[in-house]
Amino acid sequence: MLGAIIGDIVGSVYEWHNIKTKEFPLFRNDCFFTDDTVMTVAVAEALMDGGEPNNFIESMKKWGRMYPNAGYGGRFGSWLFSDSREPYNSWGNGSAMRVSPCAWLMDCGFCARTGMWPSNGRNRAIQSAEVTHNHPEGIKGALAVTDAIFMCRFYFGGYELDYGNGDCCTPEQWKARIKEHIEHEHGYDLSRTLDEIRPTYCFNASCQDTVPQAITAFLESTDFEDAIRNAISLGGDSDTLAAITGSIAEAAYGIPDWIKDKAWTYLDEPIRDVCRRWRKFVQDFE
Description:
Blueprint lengths: L1 H10 L23 H14 L4 H14 L7 H7 L13 H4 L2 H4 L4 H7 L5 H11 L5 H21 L2 H4 L8 H16 L7 H4 L13 H9 L4 H10 L4 H16 L3 H8 L4 H17 L1
Helix pairs in contact: 1-15, 2-3, 2-17, 8-9, 9-11, 9-15, 13-14, 13-15, 14-15
């Protein structure tokens, strides 16, 4: 979850002032957390409260109203501050940027032992999307990100090798497996490189034109910081791109302590509290 928050903070100052380079200060004094962080925290708390549709609705409305000026999209903002509890068929990238906590409830050991994917996190990912983004593209975006995070946890975490079920692969071979799965399972085209995407890519708030680019930014990365820089360098919806990429990169590489410590300074106590509780919740869950 922290990887998504860091991507959001770093990308916050570039959303409306795009840059097309990887050469920029990772943290600026004017960086801030946005709706991407607020809703990621809301999903995490909803999971800790039970992970049912009502938990997601109540948590999103609670946290959204605590931070009314965090930068929500128009339709989501209208839903957030209304009495409605019904979804509105969105295909926006909000379902993908907030979903990362769901992937951390998927049991890697179960998968290694049985060869079967655990369904709990994927089902929660669907529910976390459906409460607002119940359009097929909105659900697909959330699931693709969830799958990418889980596969990073599984492969980069060594679960396959620990249970004697696989060969020793390089990170690039693991990434090739992730790419193949996302393309086959979700139908996203991941064939274009960042250099091919970057020149013409511009702001787009849809899942279908954010999630593939964010995943590609991870696939071409060498470490967590490089992944964030890749995402920002594309332009577009920079904070959301980097939040999605960061959520995947965290699962593959972990996060350097200095980046964690710096990001922590941009958060207030209510959000820090959820982050602390989430860390303990995931440790106890595992």
